[in-house]
Amino acid sequence: MKRNRKFLVGRFLNLPIISILLTSLVIAPMVLNAPFAMARTNNYSSSSQVASKSGSVLSPWHFGGTTSTSTTPTSVTSTSAPVTSTVASIALLSSSYTVATKGTSQFYINPKDQNGNILSGTGVAATFTSSNTSVATVGATSGLVTGVSAGTSVITATLVSGTIKLSDTATVTVSGVATIPTVPTTPTVPTTPTTPTVPTTPTTPTVPIIPTTPTVPVSSSIQWGAYVGDGSTAVADFDTLVGKKTEMIDDFEDFTAPFPTQLSSTVGSQGKTLVVFWEPSTGLSSISNGSLDSEIKSFAAGAKSYGYPVILVPFDEMNLNETAWGAGVNGNTPAIFISAWDRIHDAFTSAGATNVKFAIDYNNVSIPSGTTNNYAAYYPGANYVDIVGIDGYNFGSPWQTFDQVFGSAYTEASQFNKPIYLMAMASAEGTQKAAWIDSLGTLSTNYPNVKGWTWFNDNKEQDWLVNSDAAALTAFKSILPQ
Q1: Total-model pTM
Q2: How confident is the model at residue 155, as a pLDDT?
Q3: Euclidean distance between CA atoms 425 and 390, whole angstroms
Q4: From CA 274, how far away is CA 4, in angstroms rounded?
Q5: Domains in the chain, please, with CATH?
């Protein structure tokens, strides 16, 4: 299988130590060596600083937003370079957020110099406050906002040192409906239990239908699979490792490549669905204007010839500004995206490739944020989409739970009333990795619209492998269909 840009998802932090270089022009410098008050929601980067799975590193300063300036700048210097940068302002990622009751949203800040440029280097310590804690609370240093009840609240991020004070604000609107209940209000198991130990009706409204142990197997109605890397034995080796046969296998192809019909022997003929992430090296206008029609028709013919089930994922994570087809890059817009998508879909229909389903695949967080770059802006319509996908990763610094990675994204994706697949996901290594994996065993209850998922099983910018430690592998095996 060809590995292409997909694993340019590298979105992890470089955290060198901040030191202070005093100059004769600075009379009251701030010491900015505290941990950055930003909890990373994984899987994104700025257009100017793109990391790759091959090992290049992003600076943590890469979030856009409105800016609140100070007339007295603060001087900071990274120990990794003898250049002094001036922090003149800080900015939140967005000026407005929407959070469900009991849902969460991660707030971020970045520092900018007097010219509005985002500064690179180690993060600064800021504090967060909520104007109305009965509506929304916020972690004082983490910036994690939790919806409490319907209404609005203003979140303020503040950086203070001596007489210098930098701040920015954002409005949070909390909806009155919880999107991921902690206890199901109705039974989610079949009316006829598969085992005599699972009641069809809860005895009390506060008792969960499913066991609370982490070994509940995924419902057999949920497809599962993995990216397993290249090599003629990679698929079989992974199946042996986890003790089950994968149902889906990920593959990544460039627009100029032929359809990978050679995978029929290891994927299609083995009863597995092939998930093809199809990624161009040019902007989307080259597709919408017909310049690549011959390549598209050839790929569609190859897919039909392949004959086995295929999930096609064109332009994955298009709501990020980090790829040739990403938001705002090469003149890309949601309108051009939809035009390009429609052109591809129509070509596959004309080719008679009825074995192919189309999945639109969003990153869990849109960068930049806003109504012009949200999930709905890119949606081509119900007749052109079979599956809605979400990509999300726990990069581990800081640690994010499964719900923190996927909770808000799941809510946004559910608006389309289509099956949701977690198209690419994984967790970094850590003492809580097994518990993170255990969350997959409760999808049918906590994320009932999720009908499939694939695990990115590779050791790249983080150790995403399911066998990164013995506990993680045991947990992974326990949540697979029995």
Answers
A1: 0.58
A2: 86
A3: 8
A4: 16
A5: 5-21+31-175 (2.60.40.1080), 223-478 (3.20.20.80)
